[in-house]
Design a protein that fits this description.
By secondary structure, the protein is an alpha/beta fold. Helices cover 30% and strands 22% of the residues.
Length: 175
Amino acid sequence: SKDGTAKYLFPSLCGWPVESVVIPDGERTTICVSSQAGCKMGCRFCMTGRMGFRGNLTAGEIISQIINVKESESITHAVFMGMGEPLDNLSEVLSAMEVLTSDRGFGWSPKRVTLSTIGVFPALREFMERSRCHLAISMHNPFDSERIELMPVQKAWPLSRTLDLIREYDFTGQR
């Protein structure tokens, strides 16, 4: 696009393509990576949810999105908010985050990596326990009765429960 944002389409081992988006913003260049081909969550506003779930990506497929974009050398931040719900593929997402933040991998600060979720339990608790990366909660609507119309997941994992869980953790200076 005019602002330099670029979309990429990658093949996946499950046979369905996945999307990544590179967003330049001054000194910062963020890549939004996918963690799944499709999605099970069925959010009413999401085109990925309309295609249904096709498969989980491996940590290698997730990292491949970062290293195989034209802008790979200038990427400063990664956000897990492409196709799929990252907490629905937590094992592979955590492995990819380990590659990004480990000295044996990219060596990035966990502050450069964000997981965006609608709040899937119990994976959210496991993420909070095992990762120091940033967390973003996709609310889309703060009112339970309206959110449930947009996000069926609200029935199983209400936003209030998600907020109660994250309040159990100390976010000062970390996330």
